[in-house]
Design brief:
Blueprint: H1 10-15, H2 18-23, E1 63-65, H3 80-88, E2 95-97, H4 108-113, E3 119-121, E4 126-128, H5 142-150, E5 157-161, E6 164-167, E7 173-183, E8 197-207, E9 215-221, E10 230-235, E11 240-243, E12 275-288, H6 292-295, H7 299-302, E13 315-327, E14 337-343, E15 349-355, E16 361-366, E17 369-372, E18 377-380, E19 383-387, E20 393-396, E21 409-410, H8 421-428
Antiparallel strand pairs: 1-2, 3-4, 5-7, 5-21, 6-7, 6-20, 7-8, 8-9, 9-10, 10-11, 12-13, 13-14, 14-15, 15-16, 16-19, 17-18, 19-20
Length: 429
């Protein structure tokens, strides 16, 4: 095995003993250990299969938190959304806790370029002074963390399938799928500061049939104040491409069935001007992490009523940067308040709660990640949105054993001329 784990922290095993946890839930900064990025695949890794053998398959469950014992961790290690899941689904929801493995990595050249802070401009709507690096390696305010998430390393270009499922309380399901091409900020064609581009994205619906070939093009700048998002939509009925200024903020695609907004894709995206942003500090919380087993499990085993099958998810103690977004008094958005949890190592959003105007939780969201160690880069394997009012959930951008894993893989660069209204029409057809 090429993958090397520097050491197994015996202290972790001792501190995390189930008896000790229940009697005296001691979790400290020492228990998560040093960061040991995995930058090489194992001997078992086969790039042709696009399967990622679990480098931590030997790890044992330290503790299972369920409705019987979650109160012991309510004040210290659980988020409000997780607590709500235990309260809403006491018979089925659980969290299997494993040793913390800080495995996330990025290419060496990204680390080399990440040497100094960028500059927030125009009220936080833009950044400057960042090319090919994490913009704020030493974040000191809320929007630093948000921008680190938005511009985190996600490869040069992405192409793939993007299936999603909506599961009703009775277990019935709605299936949808699409394709996507994204030129990320890291792409050499778009990452120079003069271009001012954050990235470009084209999507196409392939299922359900009534929406098939409906497509969108989004061009995102590094400064929404100076250059707002540009978007176009292709209607297969009219075979015409039109500007789509509504594809932003709380716009809800019909396929989402009211469960998620456009600016919730990838955790959070787009303009930030409708919220006041607050840094709630770095905290230790139990988060979905190193979800390799889930990634290699068949979808029929995953989709259970109320929430995904928790047997296949792994939770670890993680350092997260907690950010609160509260709607400004003079602005409109269907989500009045959000609390976001960003991994301090990879800058991925790992979970989120949304609240209504009376501070009641509307939904809980999870973004389990794995380290795609052949790249290397850490990304979520799906986003799960749990709506407490309807008891439905949405599983989006799913990666599992029986879903074609061409999704969200680095590819040979597409011609930048493709990312135009004419290119969108060709992509759709």
């Amino acid at each position: 095995m090429v993958i090397m784990i520097r050491k197994i922290n015996i202290l972790i095993i001792l501190v995390f003993a189930p008896f000790n946890l229940i009697a005296d839930p001691i979790f400290s900064i020492d228990t998560i250990g040093e960061r040991v990025p995995i930058i090489s695949p194992s001997a078992e890794f086969n790039p042709e299969l696009d399967s990622y053998p679990d480098p931590f398959a030997f790890d044992q469950i330290i503790l299972t938190i369920d409705a019987e014992n979650y109160i012991s961790f309510k004040e210290t290690l659980l988020t409000p959304g997780q607590i709500k899941m235990f309260e809403t689904y006491p018979e089925t929801f659980k969290m299997n806790i494993y040793p913390s493995r800080r495995s996330c990595a990025v290419p060496p050249e990204v680390l080399e370029l990440t040497k100094k802070n960028a500059l927030l401009i125009d009220g936080g709507e833009g950044v400057e002074g960042v090319v090919g690096s994490i913009p704020f390696p030493n974040p000191s305010e809320a929007l630093h963390h948000v921008w680190n998430h938005i511009l985190r390393y996600r490869g040069v270009e992405i192409y793939g399938a993007s299936p999603f499922y909506i599961v009703n309380p009775n277990g019935t399901q709605t299936y949808g799928a699409g394709e996507a091409i994204a030129k990320n900020f890291w792409n050499p064609y778009v990452r120079n500061e003069e271009a001012g581009l954050q990235g470009m994205l084209m999507t196409k619906v392939t299922n359900p049939p009534r929406l098939a070939d409906a497509s969108t093009l989004v061009i995102e700048s590094l400064n929404a104040f100076k250059t707002p998002r540009k978007a176009w939509a292709y209607n297969p009925g009219t075979r015409r491409v039109r500007r789509a200024p509504d594809i932003s903020y709380d716009y809800m695609p019909s396929a989402a069935q009211g469960l998620t907004t456009v600016d919730q894709v990838d955790g959070f995206n787009g303009a930030k001007d409708r919220y006041n942003w607050f840094d709630l500090g770095e905290q230790l919380r139990l988060m979905p992490y190193n979800a390799y087993e889930f990634h290699e499990t068949k979808i029929k085993e995953i989709l259970t009523p109320y929430h995904v099958n928790q047997d296949f998810l792994r939770y670890e103690l993680v350092k997260v940067n907690v950010i609160e977004a509260k709607l400004k008094d003079d602005k409109r958005h269907i989500i009045p308040k959000r609390i976001m949890y960003f991994d301090s190592d990879s800058h991925n959003m790992l979970s989120e709660e949304t609240f209504d105007g009376t501070d009641l939780i509307m939904a809980y969201r999870e973004f389990p990640i794995i380290n795609f160690y052949d790249q290397p880069m850490c990304l979520s394997i799906h986003s799960a949105t749990y709506d407490f009012a309807t008891k439905r959930y949405q599983l989006q951008s799913v990666r599992s054993a029986d879903i074609p894993k061409v999704q969200w893989k680095l590819t040979e660069p597409h011609d930048i001329k493709m990312f135009t209204p004419d290119g969108l029409k060709r992509f759709a057809q």
